[in-house]
Prior knowledge:
Oligomer: heterodimer
Number of strands of chain B: 0
Distance between the termini of chain A: 60 Å
Largest sheet of chain A: 6 strands, mixed
Number of helices of chain A: 17
Radius of gyration of chain B: 26 Å
Largest interface: A-B, 80 and 51 residues
Amino acid sequence: MAECHPGVLRSPPDTLTRPFYWQNLDTMKLELRGITKRFGALVANDRINLTVEPGEIHCLLGENGAGKSTLMNVLYGLYKADEGEILLDDEPVRFLSPGDALAAGIGMVHQHFMLIPVFTVAENVMLGHEPVKGGVVLDLPAARALVADISKRFGFDIDPDDVVGDLPVGAQQRVEIIKALARDAQVLVLDEPTAVLTPQETDELMIIMKQLAAGGTSIVFITHKLREVKEVADRITVMRLGKIVATASPSASTTELASLMVGRAVDLTVDKNPPTLGGESFVVAGLTVLDANGQRLLDDVSFTIREGEILAVAGVQGNGQTELTEAILGLRSGVKGSVMLDGNEIVGASVRQTLDAGIGFVPEDRKKDGLVAEFSVAENLMLDRSVGQPFAKGMNIQFDYREDFAQKSIKEFDIRTQGTDTLAGRLSGGNQQKVVLARELSRDLRLLIASQPTRGLDVGSIEFVHDRIVATRDSGIPVLIVSTELDEVIGLADRIAVMYRGKIVGIVDADTSRATLGEMMAGIAA
Amino acid sequence: MTDQASTPTMVTPNLEPETPPSRWAVAWRDIVAGSPLRTFLAIVLAFVVGAVLIVLTNEDFLESVGYIFSRPSDAVEAAVNAVVDGYGALFRGSILNLQGDTFAEVVRPFTETLRLATPLIAAGLGIALSFRVGMFNIGGQGQLLFGAGFAGFVSFNLHLPFPLHLLVAIIAGILGAAAYGALVGFLKARTGANEVIVTIMLNYIAFYLITYLMRTPVLQDPGAGGTPKTPAPDVSAQLPSLFGGGSALHWGFILVIGATVLFWWLMERSTLGYRFRAVGLNPSAALTAGINVNRIYIVAMALSAGFVGVAGVTQALGRTAGFTPTVDAGIGFDAITVALLGGSTAGGVFLAGLLFGAMKAGGPSMQIADVPPELLGVVQGLIVLLIAAPPLVRAIFRLPSPSAQIAQKRAARRSAKKGGVK
Lengths: 526, 422
């Protein structure tokens, strides 16, 4: 690495104080050569070679854990590569921190925005390289002018004086992009940018990406969503288990890309028979949840689920889905309205009572709400039945019963664990979810609520979880699914309810088009 | 759109929001849980540092340093002698006095250790219980005073026959302390008040309340002439001597063995302990699983204080004279150290209590051997420091970080498994 000189090729740009000639900026070719990054025994990146040409939209496609984010964090100076080098315009560089990468013209928009909600757009954009007048005075007008300039150039529709916390998620993401552009980024890395967007916002982002690329900016687009890749990519690099397995063109079929991604042919649909409907055993009427300030988090929500039916709630994250499930379970205060299960009112009941009434609950954040990571698999399996039969007699835990139960669950749910006493925190996400499912489905259920049931799971576990959910429905139990993955909603649902800002925009049939659902997710009634 | 309709789309895994517990929560859990090896190394290291301090404060050694280059053997000899004398005195004062004439005299130091360990173990169990529920009860002092006050009040105001009187006094002391602890749990559950602050404040309240009561007829010894001191407990309410004769070790030690077994059963075998641990490790999962977390907080604080109350009981009833407001003797705070050292487990706390009891018992004989008794305080402090700073001990002894080990193993297993998929 003797030929590598630390630091950057060019002096840091002071874009905030000089005129902004977008098209005049020199473009840049990025090349990663033989990048290897290990974490202990795990090789997260194994001799990765990647070239991003100027003005190219390069998709980095792969499942979670394939090593995409690790690679980009190496590029961005957050991780140090064990081997390999980074070349900008054929000259090797070494980034010791994100500051170096930024200065070299590499900008990154993280999945979780790095914005200060109480600051305005202009204040956020200038943060870290504030322009000053006379050495001491902040030159806010310069920053505002710059934001306005970029915003106009790309049709971002962003007011520099808006407070970031008030902006919708899509707009916040554009602020992040402006931040990178204001730092003169010639390579823009977007890490799973569409995870938080509605389909419409996603479309807008695609347009922005194409515009930026046309202006000479290279874009590295990290995703696992095949549809987006096909729509926007110039070139696709598929990663699996830390290696590059293929480079594909956007003309490759979705199935082809999917099997490259997971390494085998995959069943992309959920197999299920038409529902055998029973009585309307679960009725929600006028359910409203107020927060401490009287804000309506859930606003007059009503729906019915019949026995043997799956109702899936679609919507962008944070539109009241969490509050809906928590209100039904009895986890929230400030709940008004009515929830009837088998003719019994359960609003106002404690969690203990709603569970006893026969609700099985798969929480959206299994690590936080579903499991005790430091408990063993066996201990986790009795979490919601720690009092009385069958896990306890008096105050004594029935260890023999628990052990048998755990053995049985591991077999039935194919939980890959070394034993019943393995800590749940050491299992993979899919196996953790199977523990939760095994526990919830083992009780006498009258309703199953599953929130983001397959988030972060590998394909095999997704199939398993979906099959169990469908089997539960086929045994005549009403099922409520909440998912922000439209594909999952469409695959599982018998009917779809779309939520927007705490309200149900509409309840539609499962064969409703993706476009219509997308519009509903943006609040436009069908 | 036709393309999308005809081609089944991938049901792709969504992004998993990473919500790991905060770094401090992990560090805290690590400190509280402890590992036996690390604890042992911390103790050894603390005693090694103690040895260095003994040498550096030894007059013979300092004198010999003056001519260390002409006769280094003197300095080495003085250093070795100083350490042997100092720790020899500690051994003699806390375990066996081999110079004793009778058997009772030989083992007397050990019974003294057990006597001094008795309240430390009980209070240590109480604090350990709070740790296991994810709370930090530093109100040991106040709860111990309440336990002693209630037990004392019964011991000299009620006049009952022997076993009954003692039993009533013990129960009164435990209940008094438990009620004081339940108040903390109630405030936390109802208002979200931080138990650390509440317990600190309640320490002051308990101390001044007990002092005040010792000046009023409620707890005052009429013969004490206005100084705050209680009357002596009735003989029928005193914890009887365990071996008779000159041994000061009393039945309180048996009581504490019972408390240790109860603690073990509670935490490892019972449903209540299971819920305690669930709440302590992940309160939101406990809540989602229908466990009433607020109620657990109240019950846990009551039980935690109840164990501390046992220490108050042994302090109040394990004597033939009355006691003063200093009956706590720092036990309430030492108990925190004992709980940390013991990894918040029944056996660990028991052993840690014995160690601290031994250090208390050995102090006087070390002083006689011309070693500053403050040294033991330094050793105790070092033990805590080394346990509370696991990375330091790991660095000193080059132990691998447990989380790194886990991550490595997990990663290896994952990649092996994924690689196995066809």
